[in-house]
Amino acid sequence: MTTLAWTDSLVLNQPQLDTTHQEFIDLLNAFGAALDAGEDALPAYHALLAHTEAHFAMEEDWMARVGFEPQNCHSSQHAMVLNVMREALRYANELNDREPLSILRGELAQWFPQHAEMMDAALVWTMEQRGFDPATGECREAVATEAAAAGSGSGCGSSSCGH
């Protein structure tokens, strides 16, 4: 059983992010397949967690470079997800309780498409508007430094964000 399918609605037309998102889904599906097969799913979960940490760090770097406020709702979602993922791993390792891992599989599958379609799409839009090239790390507009100095960044780009 596939945990989450890659669909056209998840394509953001930012090649590096689209590839990273496809990898996330592949790793989530590998984790789900291990759970379904009754195998030890911890190696697959470790791979998913390591990828998610690197994935979110990449997006956090991009947000800083295009002028998102340091404490924005996009970053807050990343922190929340990583905290839950790490806590589920702690339960598995310290308490030998694998139930949180099974629950998290479904929760991540529900959360990810919404996050990608809203938060990540807003990040890609902001990157395009500011001329940010993730390959070079250069931004046509020097907003990241100006926003940090002024203390008035762009929030997270989401219409639901109060920044």
Automatic annotation (TrEMBL):
Ranges of residues in domain Hemerythrin-like: 16-122
Classification via Pfam families: Hemerythrin
Database matches in CDD domains: Hemerythrin
Gene3D superfamilies: Hemerythrin-like
Superkingdom assignment: Bacteria
UniProt key word Iron: yes
Keywords annotated in UniProt: Iron, Metal-binding, Oxygen transport, Transport
Family: Belongs to the hemerythrin family.
Name of the featured protein: Hemerythrin domain-containing protein
Species this protein is from: Pelomonas baiyunensis
